[in-house]
Amino acid sequence: MNKVEELILKRGEIKSGNILKVDSFLNHQIEIDALEAIADAFAEYFSQKDINKILTIESSGIAIAVALAQRLKLPVVFAKKAESLNLDAERYSTRVYSFTKQKEYNVQVSKKYLCADDKVLIVDDFLALGSAAKGLIELCNQAGALVEGIGIVIEKAFQNGGKELRVQGYDVLSLAMIERFNEDGSVSFCSR
Amino acid sequence: MNKVEELILKRGEIKSGNILKVDSFLNHQIEIDALEAIADAFAEYFSQKDINKILTIESSGIAIAVALAQRLKLPVVFAKKAESLNLDAERYSTRVYSFTKQKEYNVQVSKKYLCADDKVLIVDDFLALGSAAKGLIELCNQAGALVEGIGIVIEKAFQNGGKELRVQGYDVLSLAMIERFNEDGSVSFCSR
């Protein structure tokens, strides 16, 4: 069992609707030991790849991307969800459905910060149906950037986002892969 | 001139309505050298204080808070703006007006992650009228937590948020203090 799986068992909370809350160490409170373990695992796996940029989506992906970027010495770009006076008019844009917020929203990146020369590592906290990851891939496609890998902290493997991405040929590393939430409140991980 | 002032002069963009965009190194793309310089400056100033938690607000504050938390070995809590199925029912809440988004929104922290024992360092990217900082202070007040300091990357000193907070006795460190935006597109910083 790795560090992320241990954290999920010790400190995750399972809610109805197959929602796993990791607010105690990642998604509301961020514990530095947990974050560094996550970043170390991604850095180890992806450090041999030819990557020049880490792409994530606000908000929960930012901490992960920053901790990893410090290790790989790369810039981070975070896609924005909300309209802002500040966002450039020239931007790539797509729609993403949020499982936890139960709504669809725009996801956008300025054309200045994603381009055809980029070799991108996408990182995010959760992968379930894969809507956010697919949205970020779509932004890379619009820019002509290459997606060199996808790093996910927690994959709900019983939903099919991760499977679909792997079938399409993406190199997806999920640090914890949840096979199922059990009726007794426990979590089963996929065997490796 | 310090590193943040240099970055603003070289890479900031001034827009109408006294908006300064720092999307190239902090608010959309995050450059690790810039982030580490910011975190080093906060760590140097605040490391002697008795602080046990860093509080910020999603999204742009998260990267700053995480880089600083790694140096001070402290947890980060980021206040949430949007409604989510995931947020605890038991929470502190207040309203904040966003200058760049021109709307008011709820800012919330779960009661689990902010309490009367906490000695809090608040960090954020910008301080203008001080709405976000005052909102975070209000959340600390609701929890009975002490605000030990406030670290801001860029203060628009010609608006009065920083002045008001200092008059109230808060220890506010702003790494760059903008005196005015000039008609020729240049930026004047406050003398130290």
Description:
The structure is a homodimer of 192-residue chains. In chain A, 32% of the residues lie in helices and 34% in strands. With 192 residues, chain A is of the alpha/beta class. In chain A, strands 5-4-8-9-10-11 form a six-stranded mixed β-sheet, sandwiched between helices. In chain A, helix 3 (32-46) crosses helix 4. Strand 5 of chain A pairs antiparallel with strand 3 (29-30) of chain B, so a sheet runs across the interface.
What labels would you give this structure?
homodimer; 192 residues; alpha/beta; six-stranded mixed β-sheet; two-stranded antiparallel ribbon; 6 helices
Summarize, please.
The structure is a homodimer of 192-residue chains. Chain A has 192 residues and is α/β, with parallel strands linked by helices.
Number of helical elements of chain A? 6
- N- to C-terminal separation of chain A? 10 Å
What value does the average pLDDT of chain A take?
94
Largest sheet of chain A: 6 strands, mixed
**Strand fraction of chain A:** 25-35%
Largest interface: A-B, 44 and 44 residues
Structural class of chain A: alpha/beta
Portion of residues in helices of chain A? 25-40%
Give the arrangement of secondary structure elements.
The structure is a homodimer of 192-residue chains.
Chain A: H1 3-11, E1 13-15, E2 19-21, H2 23-27, E3 29-30, H3 32-46, E4 53-57, H4 60-72, E5 76-79, E6 91-98, E7 103-110, E8 119-127, H5 131-143, E9 146-156, H6 161-167, E10 172-181, E11 187-189
Helix pairs in contact in A: 3-4
